[in-house]
Amino acid sequence: MKRFEQHETLAYSLILNAMIPINLIRQAHREISPFIHRTPLIRSHALSTRWGANVYLKLENFQKTGSFKPRGAFFKLLNLSDEERSRGVVGVSGGNHAQGLAFAARTLGISATICMPTTTPKNYLDATAGYGASIRLSDTIHAAFQDAAHLQSQGQILIHPFDDERLAAGQGTVGLEILEDLPNLSRCYVSIGGGGLIAGIASALRGNEDSHTQAPNRVSPRVIGVETVGADAMAQAVAAKQIVQLPAITSIARTLGAPAVSQFTLDAVRELVEEVVVVSDQESVHELFFLLERCKVLAEPAAACCLAAANQQCSSFGKEENIVIVICGGNTSAADLAEWFTRFGR
User: What's the CATH code, domain 69-163?
Assistant: First the structure.
């Protein structure tokens, strides 16, 4: 577990420098609402009993395409000019950004090309193609980024999976919905791939601190980021105080597989997020099966890892605390479940 070294005298104005403007997140919510689901926030009796607190699940696995990704994709595409839309868009993804961008582009009548590594599971490839995108495969995620840069140089509009304020503002609408349903939340666990989701959610939670709609005496919720061993680009960047390139993604949490974070998301995490917890694949799979069997929720390791982090910290939970776990996606295949059951057990 990596806890940040922060100065107690850090000025709030410094935090604002890394915060996505709350009005931009609210604009995103208004604009994308016709195209997405407003996903439920449910209290889990099983987890609340297990950890001795009030534990809630934000079910973005019920979002269109099975993850939060359409939120940011729609907001970004809706704000392109007609000329930019006519050129088509290109994305890079080994997972959920591919599907989210393909779905948003098809809905808005924009052609999309997705550059993906050959290690991408078949269910992700099939879904992305099913949403109408053209797929270009490369040997590695690094090569996929290079392929996308080449297409961008030829005129297509690059929709980066996380290094974009408008995209992250769209993801931050998850945070607005959490606050609407649970104004008195105390902690929020959010997984980190490239960092766009947590930058958006943390900005939404902090940006509402001065809102007239906040609950009386509400304290700012603690935002905890979560990664897995072998897909921990953010934790390594925070420790090094600079961007770190991972030579390879070795975790089974493929949708956390950004080879590096960006300066934008690194700054947001350093200034808005309390800490980044790194858990093992085995812990994540254990919690994935707990979710499936006890909560009837199918998640990805990239989401179940947040339960593993909360489980590490549950001894510090107060019985009146309201804990939110963001279930960011659920695009897990039956073949994945069988493989992980054999490899890790329950």
Answer: 3.40.50.1100
Same fold: 2-67+166-344 with 69-163:
yes
Name the residue among 331, 264, 325 with its Cα closest to residue 301.
331
Mean pLDDT across the chain, nearest whole number?
Answer: 92
Name all contacts of 315-320 with Cβ < 8 Å and 24+ positions apart. Answer: 317/51, 317/52, 317/53, 317/187, 318/53, 318/186, 319/52, 319/53, 320/53, 320/54
CA distance 162 to 169: 10
Angle of helix 173-181 relative to helix 22-32, nearest 10 degrees?
90
pTM above 0.90, yes or no: yes
Tell me which of 70-74, 111-115, 116-120, 264-268 is least confident: 116-120
Q: What is the pLDDT of residue 218?
A: 57
Distances (CA, A) of 49 to 170, 189, 294: 33, 18, 12
Going along 144-193, which residue ranges are E strands?
157-158, 187-191
d(CA 164, CA 105): 17
Which tokens sit at 345? 């057990």
With a cut of 80, say whether residue 219 has pLDDT above it: no
- Taking residue 318's Cβ as centre, other Cβ atoms within 10 Å add up to 11
CATH 3.40.50.1100 describes domain 2-67+166-344: yes
Terminal-residue alpha carbon distance, the chain: 23
CB 99 within 8 A of CB 72: no
Q: Where are the domains of the chain?
A: 2-67+166-344, 69-163
Q: Is the pLDDT of residue 323 over 90?
A: yes
pLDDT greater than 70 at residue 11: no
Closest CA to 141 of 234, 259, 265: 259
Coil vs helix vs strand at 135: strand
Give which of 310, 308, 316 is closest to 286, Cα–Cα. 308
* Residues 281, 305: Cα–Cα separation, whole Å: 8
Cα atoms in the 13 Å half-sphere on the side-chain side of 277: 25
